[in-house]
Amino acid sequence: MTNDPILELRQVRKVFPEQGRQEAVVALDGLDLILNAGEFVAIVGASGSGKSTLVDLVAGFTQPTSGTVTVKGKPVRAPGPDRVVVFQDHAVFPWYTALDNVAYGLRRQGMRRRRARERAREALCQVGLQDFAHAYPAALSGGMRQRVALARALVLRPDILLLDEPFASLDAVMRSRLQDELTGLWRQFGWTVLFVTHILTEAVYLADRVVVLDRPPSGLRAIERIGLPRPRNRLDARLAEQTEELRARMGGSLDTFNGETQAGQRQRQEERYYA
Amino acid sequence: MSPAGKKENRSRLIGYSLGAWIFGIGLWQAVAWTVTAARGVPFPTPWECVTVVWEMAHGTVFLEYTIYHHTLVSLARWAEGFGIGLATGLAYALLAGGWVPVRRVTMPTVEVLQVIPGLAWIPVAILLFGLNQTATVAIIALTTFPALAIAGVMGVRSVDSHYVRAGRMCGAGPCALLATVFLPGALPHLLSGLRIALGAAWRVLVAAEMIVGSGDGLGYAIIQSRWTMDYASAFACIAIIAALGLGMERVLLLPLERRTVEHWGMSHDQ
Question: Do B102 and B174 fall within a single domain?
């Protein structure tokens, strides 16, 4: 891992203007964040904390109201294959086979069909889907579809891989398997990863650094370095320790952090279930 | 499914389609008998029609041409008009679906076009093109276009924004997005529009041929048979029109549907 900053957000503010009866929403307010090359950073936050907005800004789907988002020193203006997103779902095109989904980005870069399919096949092997190259997404399970999305992202060899709650719609077993596969691939290829989740345990287990976001005006609540060696063990007591420490630092518990008790309880249950 | 279950389904299928035939033909027969008895005019029965179709199939000259000529001419007009309506409707849908100002400005007019009955186009088409083939084709195209355009715009707008984002981040430009995201994404709606347009175009073709007087074609044949009191032939032509209309849906649409949206898990009932 090098220490060159690859992604820099400076005083980023994003306001969604009022629409009809809906008032204007401040999603991010004066956020500063720097990601180093090769780093795995997790963003945790409740809904409304602006974590998905952050992904959209880095991906280039939207522009900040004020402040700057730069990748390798250049401001982000539009989406591009150097910053690829793995979405929660609706990620892969239902009208293409797994292979053509993965080859899609390469074809758009002007690569010849044959070569693109070759590369796509390699990528499918890396996510363990070599036998499903010609299956349509409708015939695949949720976990397999997310693997296709992952393969589609990694085949483009992006500078930054953005994951927006990629495992949120998967069951517990599939979720932990894909978590481990993701960290495996990350260790192998050394991408820079920005991983968004609402589950603190998942963030602590996966990331080098955990960034805790809250609704504006609170904004950035904490950036915590997780110094645990890899590969990590889910049952490692230090993991639970760090999670609890972080939770405590965020004002006692996630309940207050969430702003509503019920949501906090649900989240805790979810964490116990998924971790 | 077990082979036994499949077999049972098959026999049930045969039973139902047999029932459907008996119902349809039986109703026709009943009407024919009733009309003949009550009004004293010979109403062609299904059997008479079958014999007429049989004779026609052997190449009897009927209104100066064989039935094959009439049918092919009608099909060719249909294909031309439908093709033009399909191409323009699709192009419009992609343009208006992707570009809001175009949609907001032009959609109301297209919606007005859709509610105009096909026959009402006849005077317009005659004014535009005169009493000829072009007028017939124009009427068909004018009927096809709005059905496809409206379904297409709805389809394009229904495409999940995640697919669009995925396409953009993979480096797809506007043209590539249209071809690889919006078009396949809009296909479920487009197929519904296609189904409506297919039937409407076929129906209006026959009507147009009746009035724009082309000298051949199935619609022309029906109206001419009426003048010569050859009702059995008119009924035979109607039967051919109905069979072709149904056949086109089965031959063109169902396979397309099966190979695309059903395969992709995108059909409406899923």
Answer: yes
CATH number reported for the structural domain that contains residue A190 in this entry: 3.40.50.300
Q: Are residues B147 and B21 in the same domain?
A: no
Q: Do B265 and A137 touch (CB under 8 A)?
A: yes
Burial degree of A135 (CB within 10 A; 0-12, 13-18, 19+)? middle
The residue behind tokens 């008032």 is A23
B181 touches chain A (CB under 8 A): yes
B135, B208 contact by CB (below 8 A): yes
| Number of structural domains chain A divides into | 2
Look at B264 and A136 and tell me if their CB atoms are within 8 Å.
Answer: yes
**Would you state the torsion angle of the CA atoms of residues A201, A206, A210, A215, taken in this order, to the nearest 10 degrees?**
-60
Instruction: Note whether B165 and A59 are within 8 A (CB).
Output: yes
The token duo for A224 is 């915590």
Are the Cβ atoms of A137 and B187 closer than 8 angstroms?
no
B180 vs A: CB within 8 A: yes
Shortest CA gap A78–chain B (Å): 8
Give pTM, 2 decimals: 0.82
- Identify the domain containing residue B197 by its residue range: 44-259
**Confidence check: pLDDT of B203 > 50:** yes
ipTM confidence: 0.84
Cβ–Cβ gap B160/A80 under 8 Å: no
Separation CA A155–CA A163 (nearest Å): 15
Q: Quick check: A198 and A47 in contact, CB under 8 A?
A: yes
Residue type, A103: A
Assign B213 a pLDDT band (cuts: 50, 70, 90): low
Pair B58, B183 in one domain: yes
User: Region A243-256: what's the mean pLDDT?
Assistant: 65
- Sign of the alpha-carbon torsion through B111, B117, B122, B127: negative
In a domain, B75, yes or no: yes
Q: Which two tokens stand for residue A168?
A: 């949120």
The SS3 of residue A163 is: strand
